Each structure stands twice: as structure tokens, then as C-alpha cells.
Amino acid sequence: MIIRRIKLKNFRQFKGEHLIEFPYQENRNVVVICGPNTAGKTTLIQAFLWVLYGKTDFKTKDLLLNLEVADLMMPGDKEEVLVSLVLVDKGIEYTITRTQNYICRSNGNVVPEDGGGRISYRELNGNMKHVVKQNDINDYINRILPEELSSYFFFDGERISNLSRKDKAGKQELSSAVKSILGLTEISNAIEHLSGGSKISVLGMFRNSLDLESENRAKEIKKKIEELEDERENKQKIKADIEKEIKKYDELIKEIEEILRQNEETANLQKQIDENNKKINLLEELIEEKIKGLRGRISQGAFSYFCKPLIEKIEKDLKEFNSSIDVVPKIQAETIDYIIKRGICICGNEIEYGSEVYYRLAELKKFLPPYYLGTAINDFLNDAYSFKKEAEKFLYEIMKMYEEYMKKIKEKNDSIEENSEIMKKIGEKKNMESYKKDKELYSKQKQIKEKELIDIVARLENINKQIGESNKELDRLAEKNEKNKFIKLCIEYAEKIRETLEEYYTRKENEIRVRLNEKVNQIFSQMYHGEKRRIIIDSNYNYEIITENIGSELSDKADESRGLETVASFAFISGIIQLAKERITAKFVNKMGDEEEELEIELESEPYPLVMDAPFSNVDEIHVRNVSKILPEIAEQVIMFIMAKDWNYAKDVLSNKVAAMYELKKLSETCTVIQRV
Amino acid sequence: MIFRIIGLERENLKTKKYSKIEMAQKIKRIIEEELIR
User: Fold this and answer.
1) Longest CA span, chain B
2) What are the CA-CA distances from residue A243 to residues A236, A322, A398, A418 (Å)?
3) Distance, in angstroms, between B17 CA and closest chain A CA?
4) Which of A131, A283, A324, A463 could pair with A412 as two cysteines, CB 3.0-4.6 Å apart?
5) Chain A residues with CB-CB distance to B under 8 A?
6) Under an 8 A CB cutoff, do B28 and A489 touch?
7) Across residues A172-190, what is the average pLDDT?
8) Are residues A193 and B14, on separate chains, in Cβ contact within 8 Å?
9) CB nearest A194 (choices: B3, B21, B27)
10) For the segment A572-628, what is each residue's pLDDT rounded down to a tens digit?
């Protein structure tokens, strides 16, 4: 970065328009602006900072406008403060302009109104001018010189002597500034971007994008599929068994049907057997009844039957006896008594007591029962006849009943015989009815199995559907898992890159510090006219001056004058600038798995100008000369605002380096003019 | 990969065009692209 010119209009004491050119040649790279105290040297530094960043260190920040101009303003008048800076950075010429308008209110107060910055640029070898969009202005300026670094290139004598006495925040700023100048910021930024906050870093983003849930889900689904497959296998076995059973029942039913078809005749015979059996049962009942009848009849008539021979023998004997006596048949003694009593005989004659008829009748009574045996025998014979008849009847009836009984027995035996014959015809074959029953049983069993089969098939379909769906989900998850694999690989690489960069960063930072130490001490030894003093830079880029010829515990206790501090600060800044001028090459080996690549990165650094206000206010003339000699050699461009007394010491050394010299002429407390000498 | 990342960092250091999160996203994309390739 090289500053070409700065234009000021009504900026503080610089009333009206002023232009300072900063001519630049390789061997004449110093511009000196001389001026007494309060002439406006510090204001010029502030003009640089204001045009670049819109900030100043003035106590009266609100009023940048030249007080004389402000004083002349009438209510309603408007005036403009303007600073325009032209600089070249990386082959591009930038024109940066910042304005602030002021208005005089009706009460006479001058107040800031609108204002702002604008920036245009053109390439050095071209004429095309580009205007930067308002929103991009800060980006462009920070690209040229980051604001946090500005204080190291635009500084006053006070700042430079305080460089080593910075507080913690200041040291941090110094540390980051050094790293930035030396080109390490891009590495530290890369490290931060790789592994900073969980949501705003590469590693955080990768880790957040890992879908660990899907991995767990995939495990669950795999387990579920395994279970379903086991169940499917089991159900398929059951299905096969059921199908086998159904087939078996089918075969059995078919066999039975075949048997039934082939044995229709047998079935009829069987039917006949059944009918016969029914008949036999009926006959058995009848036979039982007959037996009962026979038993009853025998118990009723057996006595007379078995007594019959005896009766016949008695009858014969009694008949022979009776034939020997006169027996009036069928007349009883009571009959004779009745006739006598009536007085008229059967023949119609009167019967008189004591008559012959009477006596004849009375005599007859002797042969009549109950007084006469013959009559009793006759009565007995009559009874015996009846008895015989009864016996004959009994025999007849028994015979008849027996015949009937035997007939039934025969009928029964005939049926049994017939059945036996039929059975012989049927042979060994079973009862067809049992086949029919078996067929019914098998059909029922088959139906049960078919129902089971329907359930199993439905379950299998459901299982297959579930497995299909699970597999689809698994495919989708597998896709996610593939992504996860890729993300994990990315994480691995990101971590490796971070490790590599961190390793490199640490190594390079140490290297740079060592080099900076060497540079600073080399420069310091050229600047400092004393002896055996050395600058030590620690890990925070904090530096201190040590005295080499005293004991180590006392080496840093030697009193340091402001002058020495200033010289040390010059040496430090110069060291940084010189290091930045040199191209720093980063070489490191990057190992990624089996691959190994050697990387060489050229860290980017840009030469910077030094714009200094009263740099020599604390140093003696020898140091002024020493510093003046070295600074132009190190810095790309040196612009110094200096008091005439200091210039007197420096001019011997610097005059051949000076490209331009200006003088600040203070016309009044509120007006300074700039004149080129 | 590192060259591209450093190149991007270097570019952003100049332009300050992208925020931290945008840079992380860009670096993430570089890693993904390089690994896909």
C-alpha cells in the first residue's frame, strides 16, 4: 500500500482546500511534513484515520469543520468538510473520500448534517473507473488496511513509546496484528472456521448433519426384519404342514369317496344288514314277550296238564264204581225238598205228606247229594272232565305259543343267518357308514385346516408387506447411512486439516517469532547506539529490553528511558514490516489416511507505509539519525510529521531519501496552510 | 483441499465478504466437493 495524495477541505484548522502529494520512488520513499506544535501534524494523522474509518481521536468530535468557516456561516448556510485519499494497493488505485456537511441553524448553531464515504478505484494500467457500492465501502477499506492494524501504521510518538506497555487487550491486538501482518491470520481463521462454535464451524456443521437417529432406526428395523423373517420362516413351515395336512385330508376324502363309489352295492347290503338288525331287535323283543306268555301260561295251566293222567285214571275207576249204583243225575236233595214243599210234582200230581209219592220222593233223597256218594262222584267226574278239557286246552295253547315262539326264533335266526351271508358278501370291508363318518370328520378337519391356512396366508402376506416396507425404509436409511459415512469421512478430513493447520500454525508462529526476534534485534542494534542491549519477544509478542552484561535475574531490571523504549518500538515495528515484506513460504506435510501430500503455501503479506507523528520526540540526535537511516530502508513508504528541531538531526541522513517536503504554516489558532518546500 | 481453503480464507481476509458461518459453510462445501471428486 502506497499513499499517493491526500486532499483536505475545511478539515479542522486546514481552512479551504489543501492537497498533499506523496511522490514515491523506490529510493526516495520519504515525505516529510514539518511544523511546529499545534500546527496540525496530529490533525493530519487524524485526517488519514477519518477518511479511512470515519473515526477520530478529537475531543470535539462533532465539529470537524474549520472554526473560521463555521464562524462565518449564517443561518441556513451549509458547508462541507472533505478528506480525499488516493492510494495504491496491489496494483489498484483507490480514491477514498469522506465528507461531512454542516448546517447553521436559525439560532446560529452549526451542527453536522448528512455525510458519508465513497470510494472509487481503477487499475493502474487502465482508465476504467469503478465506483464501489455504498454497502461495500468498509469491505474495500478493510481489504486495503484492516482497521485493527491501522494504529500500527498511523501512529504518533506517544503511541510508539507505549507499544511495549500495552495492557492485556492491547497485547492481544498486537499479537493478532503481527499475525495478520505476517499472513498467519488466514491460517488461524481457517482453524477457527473448521473447529470454532458447534453450529458455526465446519466440524460442528458436519457433526450436526450426522443423522445418528437414522442409524439407530436402521438397527431397530434390521432387528424387526430379522424377527419378521424368523416369523415368516416359522409360518411358512406351519403353512407347509397345514397344506400337507389338507392334502392328506383331501387324499383321505378322495379315498373314502372312491371306496364309497366302488361299494355302492355293499352299501345297499349294509343297509339290508341294518334293516335285518332292526328286525332282529324287534324279533328279540317279541321272543321275549312270547317267553313271558309261555311262562305265564305254564304257571297257570301246567298243574291241570300234569294232573291229567291221574284224573283219567281216577275217572275210569269212579265210572266203574258209579255204574254199580243208581244215580239220579243232576238232582239235589234240596230239589226234592223243594218239590215236596211245593206239594206238586214235576209230573203235576199232588204230593201229600205221608203219601206214597211223598215217601217215594223221601226215599229218593237217599240217593241224592249231599247225602249220596254217587252224586258226589258224578260231580267229581264232571269236574274231572272240565279239568281234562282244561289240560287239553293248555296243551294246545302251549303248543301254539311255542310254535309262535319258535317261529320268531326261526325268523330271528334267519335274519342273523342272512346278515351273516351278507357280511360274507361284504367280506372284510368296513361299514360304509363309518367311511361316511370318517369323510365328514376329515372334511371338518380339512375345513379347520383351511381356515388356519387362510389365517396363516393372511399373516404371511402381512409379514411380507411389513418386510417390504421395512426394507424400503432401510434403503432410505441406508442412503442416509451412506450420507453419514460420507459425513464421517468429511469430519475425518476436516479434523486432519485442522490438525495439520494447527501444527503448521504453531510451528510457523514460533518460526516467525524467532525470525522477528532476529530482525528486531538486528534493526535494534543498528538503531541503538548503546551496547549489549537486546530485545526479547515472548509468545504474546510482548517485548522487553534486556541488558546482556548483567545477571539474568537482573537483566530486565535495567532502567529504560522513554528514548530507549521509542527506539525499541521502532525496531519492533520495523522488524514486523520487514518480515511482512519478505515472502513467507509455508511448507507442510499433510497426511490423509494412506495419502501424503506436501503442501507449500506462500503466505500473503503486503508492504505497508509508516505514517508517523512526531516520531523523534523522545529520542536523542544519534537515535534520530539511526532510526531515520533505517526506516526508509525497511518501510515501503515513510511519511513523517516532524518538528523542525528533530528534522535538523534527521535531514543529514534522510535528505537523499526525501521525495517531497511540506511545511505547515500556522496562520492562526484556527488556520494552517500547507506549503511544499 | 488445504490450498482451496487457505485461498478462500485469503480472499475473505481481503474482502471480508463472508461471515464466520458463511465461511464455515464454504469450507464445508470445499471438503465435500474434494471428497466427492
Assistant:
1) 29
2) 10, 104, 70, 46
3) 7
4) A283
5) 138-139, 142-143, 185-187, 189-190, 192-194, 196-197, 199-202, 204-206, 486, 489-490, 493-494, 497, 500-501, 590, 599, 601, 604
6) no
7) 74
8) no
9) B27
10) 888 877 777 765 555 555 555 555 555 566 655 667 788 888 888 777 888 888 888
Contacts of A585 in chain B (CB under 8 A): none
Other C-beta atoms within 10 Å of A212: how many? 9
Q: What is d(CA A607, CA A9) in angstroms, rounded to the nearest whole number? A: 29
Can you say whether residue A116 is alpha, beta or left, with left for phi > 0 and alpha for psi between -120 and 50 degrees?
left
Regarding an ipTM greater than 0.90, the answer is yes
**From the list B13, B32, B34, which residue is nearest A186 (CB)?**
B13
The cell for A26 is 523506490
CA–CA distances in Å: residue A302 to residues A78, A305, A392, A614? 172, 5, 11, 176
SS (H, E, C) chain B: CHHHHHHHHHHHHHHCCCCHHHHHHHHHHHHHHHHHC
Report the residue of chain A nearest B32, measured CA to CA: A490
Chain B's closest residue to A207, CA to CA, is B28
**pLDDT band at A74; cut points 50, 70, 90:** very high
Q: Across chain A, what does the average pLDDT equal?
A: 82
Backbone φ and ψ of A118, nearest 5°: -145, 155
- Nearest CA-CA partner of A20 in A81, A69, A87: A87
Asked if A297 contacts A393 with a C-beta cutoff of 8 angstroms, the reply is: no
Q: What is the DSSP letter of A413?
A: H
- Placement of cell 442416509 in the chain: A480
Instruction: Describe chain A by its helix, strand, coil percentages, rounded to 5.
Output: 60, 20, 20
- For residues A196 and A410, what is the distance between their CA atoms, to the nearest angstrom? 120
